[in-house]
Specification:
The protein is of the alpha/beta class. The chain folds into two domains: about 45 residues; about 140 residues, Cathepsin D, subunit A, domain 1 (Beta Barrel), CATH 2.40.70.10. The strands form three sheets. It has a seven-stranded mixed beta sheet with strand order 2-3-11-4-10-9-8. It is elongated. The termini are far apart.
Amino acid sequence: MKKSCTLSHNMKYFKTLTIIILIFIISIVTIYGKSNEQLTIQEIKKQDKVIFGRIEKGYIKSANAKFTIKMDTGAKIASLDVKKLQYFKKNDEKWVRFTITSRTKRKKLHKILINTDVIIEKPVIDFVTIKKHFKNQKIDQRPVINLDITVGNTTETIRANLVSRKNFLYPMLFGREAINKFNAIIDPKKIFLQKLILEKNTEKENNA
């Protein structure tokens, strides 16, 4: 009888000890994880990095156009949704004329989105070849332009290729080049981390 009581007492002791050890290990792992997270945030601040969500708002001042941008670290160069793309020559250089659609909210109409088509002209600085991985689809060659774009309170000049993105949800895609140009890192769990700050009296610039 005494042996069974002793054995039962020992079993309870070992169970209690096991639970205490597990709680201790979980606490250490939690504290270590938080300290690593804090260290990461500190490193980001030291490097003056900007944190983008996986989706951000963008603005092209020369066209007074606002739209959403999807971040894609798997792509190299940015892509902009355009239509009515036409090539022409200007000062013996190859230029491209295209139309983009700006989606904005009118104050009087509250949440109703208004689509506005804007024509832009830009010199072609390069062409990129996109290999499509679907059957019976040809290689896609796209013109590349320099584009001044604002995200948050920062404006940068990035390279962007022009293509119809009508089958995609977002009219613009930022690749690694554009993300690095803004000195940004991506938090894929969040969206719209950057509040778009624009000049109060914004006027359309000459397309150049």
